[in-house]
Write a structure and sequence with these properties.
Elements (H helix, E strand, L loop, with lengths): L2 H14 L13 E7 H5 L5 E12 L2 E17 L6 E19 L2 E19 L4 E21 L5 H63 L10 E4 L3 E6 L20 E6 L4 H31 L3 H7 L4 E4 L8 E6 L12
Antiparallel strand pairs: 1-8, 1-9, 2-3, 3-4, 4-5, 5-6, 7-8, 9-11, 10-11
Helix pairs in contact: 3-4, 4-5
Length: 344
């Protein structure tokens, strides 16, 4: 290459400057999935109050009595423009009324523990997943009385001798009981939230199937890194938005009106709308014959009550949503909006 040619190339490169990324086309297709907070709250029991008998042996002692566990679940949404996540939290108390017998004495104990268990559930645009369960609990017991299995003049002496021995043993017993409360709370919380996550993933499998059908007809964007966000009343996941921007819905989409919604931005010509309406008719038949039976079968494994309501579930499609030109909305499972919470 001659020096003249090389100089010309360098001058041209300098004149052109660095490449500038083109701004995204505001009219490009977009899709937003909105999962309502109300539906998520209905996946857990609001309150619990369980009384169970205790009958066990430990270190040669026979322990009988009752344990009462009471409290409630709450769902906390933390607003975020970049993450779709929420916390399920259980706050409650454990109260015990126990009799501990080890010859020659029997001891009456009352115990109390306040506990808090929490787990964060995240959505990455494809899957809901639960994080580790965090538990706090402290157990403390009080000595109600000491009796003896022997009668006669030695009974008072046995009680006096046993009392300091029992009091010295209480701190270790309380620590062991506290560890057991934390372990049981962790297991119960994992079981409860795993069930909620499984139902959320079953719902999302239906959403993903619908979105793929729309993608096959080039009505929604190709797969890519999703835009995620959490509002006061919903989780959002979107495609077709600039990187680093949260998914956005039109102003007309005020608050979730159903448990699950798919919003699609795609201006349609009259011919395209006619094709889409025909697709919708075909999709309704597939929903009744294939998609809904699979969904109901999956949900029934985790919540028979929710599955019974899902049997009557329908979906609703609104083309060119009022006040939002170019936006179309698909609402799923409106019959599940007021579903009774799961029982533990």
């Amino acid at each position: 290459m001659t020096r003249t040619r090389l100089a010309a190339l360098l001058v041209a490169a300098a004149a052109s400057g660095p490449a500038v990324a083109q701004p995204p086309d505001p009219n490009s297709p977009k899709v937003v999935l909105r999962m309502s907070r109300a539906f998520i709250e209905n996946l857990t029991s609001r309150t619990f109050d369980d009384v169970a008998p205790v009958a066990t042996t430990q270190k040669g002692a026979t322990i009988v009595g009752t344990t009462r566990v009471s409290g409630g679940f709450t769902v906390a949404f933390h607003k975020s423009p970049t993450e779709a996540a929420f916390d399920i939290r259980a706050d409650g108390t454990v109260d015990t009324d126990l009799g501990v017998t080890r010859r020659p004495v029997c001891v009456a104990l009352d115990g109390h523990a306040g506990f808090c268990a929490a787990r964060r559930i995240t959505f990455d645009g494809e899957t809901y997943a639960g994080g580790p369960v965090a538990v706090q609990a402290d157990y403390a017991s009080t000595l109600d009385g000491i009796g003896t299995l022997r009668r006669g003049p030695l009974a008072p002496l046995i009680r006096r001798v046993a009392r300091p021995v029992v009091l010295r043993a209480l701190p270790d017993a309380d620590r062991a009981a506290g560890a057991e409360v934390r372990a049981r709370a962790r297991d119960k919380m994992s079981e409860k939230t795993d069930r909620a996550v499984a139902i959320l993933n079953a719902v999302h499998a239906v959403n993903a199937e619908v979105i793929q059908k729309l993608r096959d007809r080039e009505l929604v964007p190709e797969r890519g890194r999703p835009a995620l966000a959490t509002t006061d009343d919903a989780l959002l996941g979107g495609l077709g938005f600039p990187e680093g921007s949260p998914p956005a819905l039109p102003a007309a989409a005020v608050g979730p009106s159903g448990p699950v919604e798919i919003w699609v931005y795609r201006p349609l010509s009259p011919a395209q709308r006619l094709v889409l309406e025909r697709i919708h008719t075909e999709a309704k038949r597939k929903w009744e014959k294939d998609v809904k039976p699979r969904f109901v079968a999956e949900v029934e494994r985790h919540s028979p009550e929710l599955a019974r309501r899902a049997e009557a579930a329908t979906h609703e499609v609104t083309f060119d949503f009022p006040g939002a030109p170019g936006w179309h909305c698909i609402r799923f499972f409106r019959e599940l909006r007021d579903a009774e919470p799961n029982t533990p």
